[in-house]
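Researcher: I'm comparing several assemblies side by side, and this is the next one on my list. It has 231 residues spread over two chains. Same procedure as the others: predict the full complex and return the structure.
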Amino acid sequence: AQSVAQPEDQVNVAEGNPLTVKCTYSVSGNPYLFWYVQYPNRGLQFLLKYITGDNLVKGSYGFEAEFNKSQTSFHLKKPSALVSDSALYFCAVRDGGGGSYIPTFGRGTSLIVHP
Amino acid sequence: EAGVTQFPSHSVIEKGQTVTLRCDPISGHDNLYWYRRVMGKEIKFLLHFVKESKQDESGMPNNRFLAERTGGTYSTLKVQPAELEDSGVYFCASSQLTSLNTDTQYFGPGTRLTVL
């Protein structure tokens, strides 16, 4: 069975500093990986996805994520955090190896960017 | 282009009552998904429609939950009778009918259901 772990319930970072939101996964086939963000009182917004190709994926709002097969990780990063980045972030995985196409989500990580 | 919309945004009902949630997907999206997130936990899959047909309903908790998508446009999710453990945020998502493993799902704002 596939799974996603977001080991940190909350990440605190000062505005202007780099941020990392961690995600590790387990899947039997090739991993298709996704990041979503949920701002307060809003739905989930798609940030970026990794399907194949370059391990560094660039997405919306200056975010990027690096696929690391050996560490089974897909950490979300941004070089310089903004207060407006404060939100709930979800990582998700799907099986690209012929298994279930249904995504498995992590529990979410609350990112708080302090002014 | 309008995004995925859901109605109502909030619903507070008593145990034993019935509630119907509605989702309007992005126009032209044949795939429609329902998910639920219980406070502080994962977002969990409930079911998937392709047009008006149920493709996968393996995540539906029990027979108190009934989803429909008549005509392949909007969808409803009815909970009857509601129980305390049904409380949570119900998300709807839609996508175009491409590869199901790689399609990007676009989510609605969710319906927060509270069962007292």
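Model: For your comparison table: Chain A is about 0% helix and 50% strand.
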